[in-house]
């Protein structure tokens, strides 16, 4: 596939699907832009409209900067490719993404990362604390899943969904996190919040002295207010679009 066709809408692709592909490709590039990639590993998926629970995901083996709207894979809940592609998906991602997309109608985009700060926090028994500005925004929104090894096997799906419950952040203990939301923009903003919370928690933990804990009521209020802003004000869309503009300008992207 040459450079021109990588960024040209195929004739069989609807306008709605192509717009989703462009937005998801930008999300991959943003994760790289912020330095949150794990080389060719990890994965971001976006569910396609319709009752079949099909979703888009990255071709395994490509850097996030090599992901384009056209080379994203379209797969079913078993990880089977629904359109021809020279690429395959990452088998370690199918159990996680298919479980969530199959069980949670409200989650249209799922992002999995394990940056160093996030990996450090999820290794600790207490997990995320809620005593800083970003950590408070996660209050009541985090589910915890016991590490079972690389997520390759179907039998773990039920347990992951039970661990997630009705929440939007799944801590994979001793591993990383998965965040899911009703749009790519909201999922990316949630990821950014989780990453900032992890960075702050690691920095505070490295300092001497006693932490100043927040009251649970204040943390809950902060989390509820953030959720309302994202849900009702277009806050996440403004943030996402601004980050895409910044990235495209600095990287001189032509698509």
UniProtKB/TrEMBL annotation:
Top-rank lineage group of the source organism: Bacteria
Residue spans crossing the bilayer: none
Pfam families listed in its UniProt record: Aldolase_II
Class II aldolase/adducin N-terminal domain: residues covered: 22-202
SMART domains named among the record's database cross-references: Aldolase_II
Protein family per UniProt: Belongs to the aldolase class II family.
Protein name as it appears in the record: Class II aldolase/adducin family protein
UniProt lineage: Bacteria, Pseudomonadati, Pseudomonadota, Gammaproteobacteria, Pseudomonadales
